[in-house]
TrEMBL record:
Keywords: Calcium, Cell adhesion, Cell membrane, Cleavage on pair of basic residues, Glycoprotein, Membrane, Metal-binding, Repeat, Signal, Transmembrane, Transmembrane helix. The chain crosses the membrane at residues 597-618. Pfam families: CADH_Y-type_LIR, Cadherin. GO terms for cellular component: adherens junction; catenin complex. This is Cadherin 19. The gene is CDH19. It comes from the Eukaryota. The keyword Nuclease does not apply. Residues 68-148, 149-256, 257-370, 371-470, 470-581 form the Cadherin domain. InterPro entries: Cadherin, Cadherin-like_dom, Cadherin-like_sf, Cadherin_CS, Cadherin_Y-type_LIR, Catenin-bd_sf. GO terms for biological process: adherens junction organization; calcium-dependent cell-cell adhesion via plasma membrane cell adhesion molecules; cell migration; cell morphogenesis; cell-cell adhesion mediated by cadherin; cell-cell junction assembly; homophilic cell adhesion via plasma membrane adhesion molecules. It comes from Papio anubis (Olive baboon). Residues 1-21 form the signal peptide.
Length: 772
């Protein structure tokens, strides 16, 4: 039995397929295979495949027909479709075997379906033939446009790059089947970016087609289109944008926009002062815009330019001090160039940009200026007061030429007038001071704050005003038994004067000593001389000491001569000629001299102590005369009497008045029993002071005695008095005036009067207890 599958037209070719399910043992009718079909025999089954176009928009699209060659058209067979997609994507007419697609097919989602078909006899319910598989392939159509998957695109290329320089490559992809015609064959084109860029049609490589300047435009947007079907009609397309940035190259030199700069500088500005800035501009960026400034023309070598690498400014600084009176304006030319320049770009930097700078010097009030930095003068010593030393001169460097006043700082030896003439105020002595260091100050009269000072050195020249003298004190000795011609002393001389040549001294004896001297002198011609004996034998008893006058002359002009006395002691020497006896005598003389000094000091000390004792004695005696009342006793006196009185009624036995004070008579007061009243009276007794009439009377009496005292000193003196009052307001505690004895009285209040009355409280308290 044979079965056939009738397919719809594919590419305009009608297809007739044999029935699926035929096997090698099946009696099938062999037919000629149509073009585009595929049939192969495997394991006794007949495999068939056919194509179904995708993107079918109808809800039910006829795909093909399955028909068994045993089916005679009597509707006794039932066709069934099994497998993935059966019933959902594909359905089959059970009576006719027609297969329909009920869903839209997309090859990019699923390109083939493997289904199984089966034919069943309706009357018996059995399969007429065994199941057979077949394949339905979905054929591709151009339904996907090209897409650029690596978006966004960005590229950087140096400016001024030559034509043909590779920029970037863009690539698009098409989801259609590349093996199905030209659906996936792409063609690239440039929609935007002419005339600077071009794209290769088949590769998508973007290249430069014209030079570009970053300073004119630093970035470009290029639009690339990709079309499938190699651009044929009906092709689909996709686009992408590419941002192309131009990187900077050093193709621009820095340029001064100002051809002239005007700056000012004060003449008082120190070196290194910044006086202004200049600025050049470079269209490049980054390190390509870094600049270096320099001086191109400056004959005076007064200024310099340094570069501020942060702001790319040129700073004009003062290299040397300027003087308005010497030159009040300057003109210099500055240039600028890039710091980093590649060799291939040197053509853009052949000539550096320059600018001219005019600098005006500002005048300031300057201090006086001396003609010399220092002065050195010379003057001979011993010149009279007011002698001329030298002249200093200072001028006002400003245009107004202020007069100058001069002065000398801390000098009592020299003076200077308004003309700068220095004179002496005292006679000079080179031996005291050979040089004088002066400080001369010049002050403007119009502006006393403008002051200048310079050092002046005065050298005092020597004149021969000091005669030579012994270089030291000599103690010479000669033995009694010395022979004639014996050397007893070598002497030398010094001269405080300064000599142009080397000092040379001449030694001689005075005329008197030459004629009658026992000694002679020999000049050694080396500024020394020796003293020799001129006779034999000396007598210690007759002539113990000799005084020799020696004349010493110098080689100065004029020559000066001095007379120096040499003392020679005669000694009692031993046989060996030793002078120990003379040295012992000298020591004794020295000790004697010291003893006399000590005695004199002791006498002075005794005189001083005697004067001190005398002074103290006079002061003590004067005190006794000034204060005779201090010998009196101001206490209350107690007199003893041995005779027996006649009792209280007897007032004849003794004088009661002697027991009372001569100044005031105390009245008998009744003793109070309350302690509060006693304390009040105690406080009142302490109030007696300078305001009391008794005290004032006492002071007046003592003042009169001091004024009338003939022994009082003739100067102010301090008078000291000891005054005892007449008594306390509290009454006396003595029993002499007590007429009665209050035995029942309580003395407990004494304990309240403080520690001074503690002993009294104990005594009276004990007496009361014993009486009781």
């Amino acid at each position: 039995m044979n079965c056939y599958l009738l397919l719809p037209f594919m590419l305009g070719i009608p297809l007739l397929w044999p029935c699926l399910g035929a096997t090698e043992n099946s009696q099938t009718k062999k037919v000629q295979q149509p073009v585009g079909s595929h049939l192969r025999v495997k394991r006794g089954w007949v495999w068939n495949q056919f194509f179904v176009p995708e993107e079918m928009n109808t809800t039910s699209h006829h795909v093909g027909r399955l028909r068994s060659d045993l089916d005679h058209g009597n509707n006794s067979f039932q066709y069934k479709l099994l497998g993935a997609g059966a019933g959902s994507t594909f359905i089959i007419d059970e009576r006719t075997g027609d297969i329909y697609a009920i869903q839209k097919l997309d090859r990019e989602e699923r390109s083939l379906y493997i289904l199984r078909a089966q034919v069943i006899d309706i009357t018996t319910g059995r399969a007429v033939e065994p199941e057979s598989e077949f394949v339905i392939k979905v054929s591709d159509i151009n339904d996907n446009e090209p897409k650029f998957l690596d978006e966004p695109y960005e590229a950087i290329v140096p400016e001024m790059s030559p034509e043909g320089t590779l920029v970037i490559q863009v690539t698009a992809s098409d989801a259609d089947d590349p093996s199905s015609g030209n659906n996936a064959r792409l063609l690239y084109s440039l929609l935007q970016g002419q005339p600077y860029f071009s794209v290769e049609p088949t590769t998508g490589v973007i290249r430069i087609s014209s030079k570009m300047d970053r300073e004119l435009q630093d970035e470009y947007w290029v639009i690339i289109q990709a079309k499938d079907m190699i651009g044929q009609p009906g092709a689909l397309s996709g686009t992408t944008s590419v941002l192309i940035k131009l990187s900077d190259v050093n193709d621009n030199k820095p340029i001064f926009k100002e051809s002239l700069y005007r700056l000012t500088v004060s003449e008082s500005a120190p070196t290194g002062t910044s006086i202004g800035t200049i600025m050049a501009y470079d269209n490049d960026i980054g390190e390509n815009a870094e600049m270096d400034y320099s001086i191109e023309e400056d004959d005076s070598q007064t200024f310099d330019i340094i570069t501020n690498h942060e702001t790319q400014e040129g700073i004009v600084i003062l290299k040397k001090k300027v003087n308005f009176e010497h030159q009040n304006h300057y003109g210099i030319r500055a240039k600028v160039k890039n710091h980093h320049v590649d060799e291939q770009l040197m053509k853009y930097h052949t000539e550096a940009s320059t600018t001219f700078i005019k600098i005006q010097v500002e005048d300031v009030d300057e201090p006086p200026l001396f003609l010399l930095p220092y002065y050195i003068f010379e003057i001979f010593e011993e010149t009279p007061q007011g002698s001329f030393v030298g002249v200093v001169s200072a001028t006002d460097p400003d245009n107004r030429k202020s007069p100058i006043r001069y002065s000398i700082t801390r000098s009592k030896v020299f003076n200077i007038d308004d003309n700068g003439t220095i004179t002496t105020t005292n006679s000079l002595d080179r031996e005291i001071s050979a040089w004088y260091n002066l400080s001369i100050t010049a002050t403007e009269k119009y502006n006393i704050e403008q002051i200048s000072s310079i050092p002046v050195y005065v050298q005092v020249l020597n004149i021969n005003d000091h005669a030579p003298e012994f270089s030291q004190y000599y103690e010479s000795y000669v033995c009694e038994n010395a022979g004639s011609g014996q050397v007893i002393q070598t002497i030398s001389a010094v001269d405080r004067d300064e000599s142009i040549e080397e000092h040379h001294f001449y030694f001689n004896l005075s005329v008197e000593d030459t004629n009658s001297s026992s000694f002679t002198i020999i000049d050694n011609q080396d500024n020394t001389a020796v003293i020799l004996t001129n006779r034999t034998g000396f007598n210690l008893q007759e002539e113990p000491i000799f005084y020799i006058s020696i004349l010493i002359a110098d080689n100065g002009i004029p020559s000066l001569t001095s007379t120096n006395t040499l003392t020679i002691h005669v000694c009692d020497c031993d046989d060996s000629g030793s002078t120990q006896t003379c040295q012992y005598q000298e020591l004794m003389l020295s000790m004697g001299f010291k003893t006399e000094v000590i005695i004199a000091i002791l006498i002075c000390i005794m005189v001083i102590f005697g004067f001190i004792f005398l002074t103290l004695g006079l002061k003590q005696r004067r005190k006794q005369i000034l204060f005779p009342e201090k010998s009196e006793d101001f206490r209350e006196n107690i007199f003893r009497y041995d005779d027996e009185g006649g009792g209280e009624e007897d007032t004849e036995a003794f004088d009661v008045a002697a027991l009372r004070s001569s100044t005031i008579m105390r009245e008998r007061k009744t003793r109070k029993t309350t302690s509060a009243e006693i304390r009040s009276l105690y406080r009142q007794s302490l109030q007696v002071g300078p305001d009391s009439a008794i005290f004032r009377k006492f002071i007046l009496e003592k003042l009169e005695e001091a004024d009338t005292d003939p022994c009082a000193p003739p100067f102010d003196s301090l008078q000291t008095y000891a005054f005892e009052g007449t008594g306390s307001l509290a009454g006396s505690l003595s029993s002499l005036e007590s007429a009665v004895s209050d035995q029942d009285e309580s003395y407990d209040y004494l304990n309240e009067l403080g520690p001074r009355f503690k002993r009294l409280a104990c005594m009276f308290g004990s007496a009361v207890q014993s009486n009781n």
